[in-house]
Design a protein that fits this description.
about 160 residues, alpha+beta, Alpha-Beta Plaits, two-stranded antiparallel sheet, 9 strands, about 30% helix
Length: about 160
Amino acid sequence: MSAGVPAVVAFGANLGDRAATIQAAADELAATEGVELVTLAPVMETAAVRPYGIDREAPAYLNTVAVIRTTLEPAELHAVLRRLEDAHGRVRTQRWGDRTLDLDLIVYDDLVQDDPELTLPHPRAHERDFVLRPWLAADPLAELPGHGRIDRLLDELEGGAA
């Protein structure tokens, strides 16, 4: 395909067969018309994060990011991600709760929008190691619009700036 715009999708799962779910969702995303999977970062395991911080009692997450190119509009791509979550048993009963699959559109080209349905770039991506670390592995020169280079953001997080 190679047409369209670059976008980054974050994957997370902490219930069920996490690795199989993430791989299946990545395959299904790649098979979606208007989406080309450029790179899927290696999966990393992280502790669950709640509004109050790390929850060591909750099942650990597997996280990764996909760098894609897409001809879909942001709202269309977001709808695809929601359908994939639903297809893999995502239940939306508790914000920040455990889940079989979480898919977040992190960036869509360099689009900046503050919309109740879809804020871009993702409003908390710059403070999430579990998004930034796999994204850096997938694209060492990546930048988060409005925040700068991913490698520098990770350095700031590791330095306790977050």
